[in-house]
Give the backbone structure.
Amino acid sequence: MSAVTTDPAGRAARGAVTVPAQASGSTGKLRLMAVHAHPDDESSKGAATMARYVREGVDVLVCTLTGGERGDILNKAMDRPEIRADLAGVRRAEMARAREILGVQQRFLGFVDSGLPEGDPLPPLPEGCFGVQPLQVAAAPLVQAVREFRPHVILTYDENGGYPHPDHVMTHRVSVEAFEAAADPDRYPGTGEPWQPLKLYYFVTFHRARFEALHNEMLRLGLESPYAERLAKAEENADRQTWEITTLVPCGDYFEVRDKALIAHATQIDPHGGWFACPTDAQRAAWPTEDYHLARSLVDTEKPESDLFAGIREKVNVCSC
Ligand SMILES: [Zn+2]
């Protein structure tokens, strides 16, 4: 499916590790935390997964590190002076709508968007933005959120951020830091009681096998595929490192919910744009899962997985209340 990489964290994932007593003895609902850089990222990566788990009774919290203040307006119809005048406010309102559609909880962690630097050489990042914060400062609110929400599973980006936006790279760094530090009572004092999440996943969303499947399905249906260029590029970069897909979560029934949440981010998403080029039924036929790389795990699990909570359901006494 995709090239297997040597990943020290992945190796750890295969080892048998004792589940911390606090987690193994815990009761209540399963809890999933998705950590994202900007409002709209939660709707483009893992949204159908979250919609499915919410409807199955899992508590889902999206943590959004920045307010998306420096995002461009990517939907021409929304590029109006009154929108530009309060882009931060508009994006908060968009996030609130997407949150309701997905059925998740969501909180902003209060950092300022770094923007995507452009030019050669690249300009320095703006003063005070998320991307220039020392790790300890950048990670503290997320450690606090982990200690409060007590997730069993955390989803985030890989070390390249999925794409090279400074906020996405920093989001990866703070997620790994929180996964590793939140259970240590000596670290991040004053941010709550220690808590050890059991699994950390990276989103593997825009990968070649999926686009190939969508492309072929559209050709089969006699439709014009928009993916040829993307696939040619992938061919050129075939030797680039890609993450092993360890986990495929079936969530095709929730693709419409995902699309509605995406459209709620009206400044970022053109409802007539590339996001919606492939008919939903064709997507369901060609690739009905959202995919992940298990980067850290403190529970035993057999790969490939089809459930983010594989190895955890058995350990946690889940109540149906
Ligand atoms: Zn983003």
